[in-house]
Design goal:
mainly alpha, 37 helices
């Protein structure tokens, strides 16, 4: 029996040969897959297609006119692709080396005929026969998910049960395993004609994911192309389909969102809460102190500022949630161990408070109604709602009572809350988000996930696909993708879109953002080109000028950087940072007198600023004014300092011939350097040329002083 690696390798070769129109090589590769497998139907189909191909080749050799040759070649490529798909599927089912194929093998004999399922489904009522209805829904899900290849019977069953969202999810899982054009066309029908938003959104998500996976087949399937073009003529459908693609891209960032919540937002909120509890014993005491004039006012003011900071964190959390970020992934990942989630269909089941598995979670109808209203008013996906309700059955009764008490005694108030939030939670972006959260949890939390092919490892660069090109995205549509990539820090992906736009569509903001992407990718030359264009379109913009100056300095174009800083200074004459940056550029140009004038102006503006002292120390050192440098070194040492400051003071002492003092400062610098002696050596190596040139230190003396420093460090100086 062939291994999965062998099967997949040969399958990839077949696909590669077909893309290059090397059908003979593709047939040979299929022959190696069929060798020793006793799959006569597949072998016969392969021989039939190959005979057709060889007949066509004979016509070519004989020079016979064949106006249908191109169409025949396309048909053969598609037919051989379909055969390769089916053969790969059959061999993997036989191998059954992962969960999905084991389920196919296990269910093959027990699955009922489609007609039987269809007949029973048409007769059962979800109200009168709930348990049987749930069982049948799961059975239909499994039939559509685990069938090797759909026949007319499966398509008929799919159409009759297409009103069930879980059925659409089953078709998506099947499509992700095996390409099926007819299933894709049925998904188009559902996405266009269904009035139920959950169903439409699921169909669109399934379409977007499947079409991305099979992007290389789009151009060779005209029926699919025509269906997409027809659907995208409807402005509402087009907007929703683009929304689905955007939400898929967002969902890929769930791990980053979870990390941000765990490492930044939640710890800061907890820290703030702890501080409040420590600083204020009670609301009453807090209000009493507000009425008194006392030294604590400053403390309270600081606390209010902290509160504003906490509000910002909460606003950030809510904004992430509203924009479709999956903020509950880490919380509910621990609540997926119930037997309920052992069944794949339940990961995609629309939430129903009356589901039979939840009956032990509630002691009365009032509890059930409260929870239902609360869950309907939130942003949780179906999977997390089931987790929440299932966990209620495990909470001690005293804690349950407190929980339901906290929900409020007035059911009317809860219903009013639901009415207030209904418009928000039924928006398309929220539904798309919830739909994809169900999918994401299945691939990332399901007990047998190690056997699944995680779709979220795909890049989902929708803008680069054949089907997106066929849709001809408008500039506003392209910018939706670009803006998401940009604000999420995916600069490479954003850059692809910005650079694809025509010159006539670009304004100053687009050039600014394009330059920013280049800058973050350390492509400083390209960044400068974009910033310069932005500066021409929107002259003297502060943001642009600062970025231009930064990139010019990186590229060592100090005169250009200096010009930018001067233009900025004309707008902000008292800006200390601008003065310092202007002075540093003058230093790099060895215009030390100009640099001193700039730095002295900065010193006049901020007489006790340590950054000014640093600048004057280094400018004095480079211009051989070592006594003046020592004066600023002493000012720098009057407060807490850092490793680089101590090293620079050491340079000044060395230039003045005070080698013992220089070594003492170097030792202190080593102690403060996070990388110890290695970090210090890296830093001083960058200054070595200045030491040798400005302080007239020989190469020999430099090396010997460094040797002595190492001994002093080893001797625990």
């Amino acid at each position: 029996m062939k291994t999965r690696i062998e099967i997949e390798n040969v399958y990839r070769k077949v696909r590669a040969f077909l893309q290059k129109n090397l059908l003979k090589d593709a047939f040979d590769a299929l022959g190696t897959l069929l060798n020793g497998e006793n799959l006569w139907q597949f072998a016969d189909r392969k021989n039939e297609l190959e005979d057709t191909y060889r007949t066509m080749l004979r016509y070519v050799v004989e020079g016979a006119p064949d106006p249908e040759r191109t169409a025949l070649l396309e048909m053969l490529r598609n037919a051989v692709t379909e055969l390769a798909d089916a053969l790969r599927e059959r061999l993997l089912v036989r191998l059954a080396d992962n969960y999905e194929y084991q389920e196919i093998q296990r269910n093959a004999l027990s699955m009922r005929e489609c007609q039987s399922l269809k007949n029973e489904f048409s007769l059962l009522s979800p109200v009168e026969n709930r348990v049987e209805y749930e069982r049948l829904t799961m059975e239909i899900f499994n039939r559509l998910w685990l069938t090797e290849r759909y026949t007319e019977a499966e398509y008929d069953l799919l159409q009759s049960a297409s009103g069930q969202p879980v059925v659409v999810s089953a078709v998506m899982l099947h499509l992700l395993r095996l390409y099926d054009e007819k299933s894709l066309l049925l998904l188009f029908d559902i996405s266009e004609t269904e009035t139920d938003n959950d169903l439409r959104c699921r169909a669109m998500v399934a379409l977007a994911v499947a079409m991305y996976k099979y992007n290389d087949r789009f151009e060779s399937h005209p029926a699919l192309r025509n269906r997409l073009l027809l659907a995208s003529e409807n402005a509402a459908w087009r907007a929703d389909f683009i929304q689905a693609m955007l939400q898929i891209v967002r969902t890929k960032d769930t791990d980053a969102v979870t990390k941000k919540l765990k490492e930044k937002i939640l710890p800061e909120m907890i820290k703030f809460r702890t501080k409040i509890e420590r600083e204020i014993s009670s609301d009453e005491e807090f209000m009493k102190n507000f009425s008194e004039e006392n030294p604590e006012w400053k403390k309270k003011l600081k606390l209010a500022q902290d509160y504003n900071f906490s509000e910002k964190l909460m606003d950030e959390f809510l904004e992430m949630q509203k924009n479709g970020a999956d903020v509950f992934m880490s919380s509910f990942a621990q609540l997926k161990n119930f037997d309920f989630f052992a069944k794949v269909s339940n990961w995609f089941l629309p939430f129903d408070i009356s589901h039979s598995s939840l009956q032990k979670s509630f002691t009365n109808e009032t509890e059930k109604r409260k929870v239902d209203l609360m869950l309907q008013s939130g942003y949780m996906c179906d999977s997390d709602k089931y987790s929440f309700c299932l966990s209620l059955s495990q909470i001690p009764s005293s804690q349950r009572d407190m929980l339901f008490l906290s929900m409020g005694a007035d059911r009317d108030a809860l219903e009013e809350m639901y009415k207030d939030r209904k418009a928000e939670v039924t928006k398309k972006n929220v539904i798309f988000s919830a739909c994809l959260q169900n999918v994401y949890r299945y691939y990332r939390i399901f007990g047998n996930r190690q056997h699944l092919t995680d779709i979220f490892t795909m890049k989902f660069a929708f803008v680069d696909t054949h089907f997106a090109q066929a849709m001809r995205f408008s500039v506003p549509e392209l910018l939706k993708f670009a803006e998401y990539y940009f604000v999420s820090g995916h600069y490479e992906e954003a850059l692809v879109i910005y650079e694809r736009m025509s010159l006539s569509d670009k304004d100053a903001e687009i050039y600014q953002k394009t330059g920013f992407c280049h800058q973050h990718l350390q492509q400083f030359g390209q960044a400068l080109d974009c910033y310069e264009r932005a500066d021409l379109m929107l002259p003297d913009n502060k943001w642009t000028l600062r970025r231009l100056a930064f990139c010019y300095r990186i590229e060592k174009r100090y005169e250009k950087a200096l010009d930018c800083y001067r233009r900025l200074s004309a707008q902000q004459p008292d800006d200390l940072d601008l003065m310092l940056n202007e002075g540093y550029c003058q230093m790099e140009l060895q215009a030390y007198d100009d640099a001193f004038r700039t730095f002295f102006k900065a010193e006049y503006t901020a007489p006790a600023n340590r950054n000014v002292f640093r600048a004057l120390l280094w400018c004095s050192f480079l211009s051989h004014k070592f006594e003046q440098a020592e004066k600023y070194a002493e000012k720098l040492m009057t407060a807490t300092t850092n490793a680089v400051d101590l090293m620079n003071v050491g340079h000044v002492k060395w230039a003045l011939g005070k080698r013992h003092e220089a070594l003492n400062f170097y030792c202190q610098s080593v102690r403060l350097d996070t990388k110890g002696i290695n970090g210090f050596m890296e830093n001083i190596a960058r200054d070595s040329e200045a030491l040798k040139e400005k302080a007239q230190i020989s190469d020999e003396e430099y090396k010997l002083m460094m040797e002595q420093l190492k001994y002093m460090i080893n001797d625990n100086y």
